[in-house]
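Lecture notes, unit on protein representations.

Consider one protein chain, 165 amino acids long.
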Amino acid sequence: MGMSVTISVATEQDVEQIFRLQYLCFQSEAALYGNYRIDPLVQSLDSVRQEVASDCVFVARLGEEVVGSVRGHVTEDGSASIGKLCVHPRLQGHGIGARLLRAAETALVEERGAKRFRLHTGHRSEGNLRLYRRVGYETVGTSQGADGVPMIVLEKPAEAYVTTA
């Protein structure tokens, strides 16, 4: 290809590509749980647009194509909730997910004052769990998603965000 993947803040012009990418990427998660009503698959385009406008959203680009995305926002208790991390299936396993996480963590600390990071993933999502643990997240509990999927909740302190690098 000859192009490298770049990470940047998402813009309004990225919304439709993020929406389509999210739908593609979360098909494998839905299949893993036999549940095609998981949040990333039923989220509306307008809802993605609102998140891009208000949250901390980064994209990975290969040329003009959005090939990865992540979102985060800081809650009232100072926790940064990070979610919907996805990388195009053909580019998974090349560190793009970790780069997106690092960009989101950096912005959430430096621009929004996050004290800790929190994310969750399905209990069967071994690849996701490996990535999150490799970059310093630790399991702190479990929860059940609104869609009924059992989730593992992971956290790391904000001062540890440099370990994602």
